[in-house]
Amino acid sequence: MPLTKDSPATVGVAEEVEARRPQAATHATEAAGPASASVMLLRLLRAAQPVSRAELARRLGVNRSTVTDTFKPLIAAGVVREEAVQPSRQDGARALGRPAVALSFDDGQDYFAGVNVGVRHSTVGLATINGEVLAEEEFDTPSEPGDALRRVVSVVERLRGRARGRKLRMVGVSVPGPTDATRRRVVYAPHLGWDDVDLAGALCFGEDGAECGTESAVPVAVENDATAAALYEAHLRLGRAESGRLEDFVLVRSGTGIGLGLVLGGEVYRGGGLGAGHAGEFGHMTIVAGGKPCVCGNRGCWERYASASSASALYVGDRVQLGGQAAPRFVEIVARAEAGELRAQRTLERVGEYLGIGIANVITGLGVPRVIVSGRLVYGWKFISEPLRGAVAQSMAGRLSGWSVEPGEASGAGLGGALEVAVEGFITSGLGV
Ligand SMILES: [Zn+2]
Q1: Cα–Cα distance between 20 and 222 in angstroms, integer?
Q2: What pLDDT was estimated at residue 433?
Q3: How far is the CA of 306 from the centre of ligand 1 (A)?
Q4: Measured distance CA(254)–CA(239) in Å, rounded
Q5: What is the pLDDT of residue 318?
Q6: Res. 70: pLDDT tops 60
């Protein structure tokens, strides 16, 4: 049921948690709709903890009884704990009475695995629901998907030794390409050269004697890396959002290519119907007619002009590969720009302008004026941001009041995004309670 401040969901929240339990996110086929009150409460708790029931109710605009009903079974199950906290100054009315009780996640029992499949490097990590990293390992991504997935399985199995005594609840995978509607397969990852790979099917981790391929195996959710980064940035911002809900924004992840993560109507948007899992592929929209060839088979795609990788080609210009030497990589170009080299500075300004042209198109088309740029490109923000803003300002998007483009994680939220996919899947499936 859609939740607004005018019609708080006061009934059925505990039942809703119960009703969602059997799905356990093994097959993430649920269409993305408005989140239930319980899911929104759990997300807000995780982002703002420790936090009182009253504060949760106030920020989300729901009744205290909704909060109580949601957390009662979770406290009984030991997933959420209560603790006494010193009353804050704003909470003066309670200062002389009983100490306030705040809720937080108890992260002593469970853990999550994140797998970020990158074009050059992949990272595997284990973490608690509160973000404490228990183990992490990076390796070069094998080019064959079968080899890559065997490597992931062996690394996760080895790292699991460092999480003894805890239960692996969910595996989140981020990949540089669109996924299928069930979020188990990557449909096409052009920079990896992977075509329709069943990632979830290969990442089988049993728990307590569970058999792979059955409902009792650890659930796996596969997400496009830009959407995973959007989940990560949304979580970071949720703790500060007075409304207590995810605010709409567009995340532009620029590294080897460009991918977009969309948060629309307070939820991550993945596309609908046959296009589920395909939303956000703006990196392959044509920005220069008959332009540079792209790995996707088209010419003149946005990512050929505004990704971190495209900067190398722009820097070299039309000259053939600097007398046989490889073109400098993005971070090297940034270092040269910092040192005052004009060619490097002009290159970054040009990338910023192309990035701004594409961002203006996205803002104009979606009507979402808030943009976060994430990925390697952020390292050159000092040189990129002004021409970027100039390009947006002179477009129709520039007339929207309050548009903003801000830098996010330079790492592109790689492992953090993958772990966020796992935790978000756990929360939306009812925490296994
Ligand atoms: Zn393309």
Answers
A1: 20
A2: 64
A3: 12
A4: 25
A5: 58
A6: yes
Those residues whose C-beta lies under 8 Å from the C-beta of residue 289, and which sit 6 or more positions away, are 300
* Pair 397, 403: CB distance under 8 Å: yes
Distance from Cα 87 to the centre of ligand 1, integer Å: 55
Where do the domains of the chain lie, and which CATH numbers do they carry? 13-105 (1.10.10.10), 110-228+415-428 (3.30.420.40), 240-411 (3.30.420.40)
Q: How far away, in angstroms, is 129 Cα from ligand 1 center? A: 36
Q: Output b/e per residue, 274-296; b: 16+ Cβ within 10 A.
A: eebbbbbbbbbbebeeeeeebbb
Residue 423 in tokens = 């935790």
78-93 pLDDT, tens digit per residue, is: 899 998 876 655 555 5
- How far apart, in Å, are the Cα atoms of 300 and each of 188, 306, 347? 19, 11, 18
Query: How do residues 8-53 score in pLDDT, each as one tens digit?
Result: 333 333 333 333 333 333 334 344 456 788 899 999 999 999 999 9
Q: Rounded distance, CA 1 to CA 66, Å?
A: 14
DSSP 322-387: GGGPPPPPHHHHHHHHHTT-HHHHHHHHHHHHHHHHHHHHHHHHH---EEEEESGGGGGHHHHHHH
Whats the size of the chain, residue-wise? 433
Give the neighbor-by-neighbor strand order of the sheet with 258-264: 267-269, 258-264, 249-254, 370-374, 404-407
pLDDT tens digits for range 271-306: 887 777 788 889 999 999 999 999 989 999 999 999
Q: Ligand 1 center to residue 336 CA distance, Å?
A: 28
Contacting residues for 315 by C-beta, under 8 A, at least 6 apart: 327, 328, 333, 343, 344, 347
Ligand 1 is an ion; its neighbours by CB within 5 Å are 284, 294, 296, 298, 301
**C-alpha angle with apex 213: 209 to 218, nearest 5 degrees?**
60
Contacts of 10 (CB under 8 A, 6+ apart): 62, 63, 65, 66
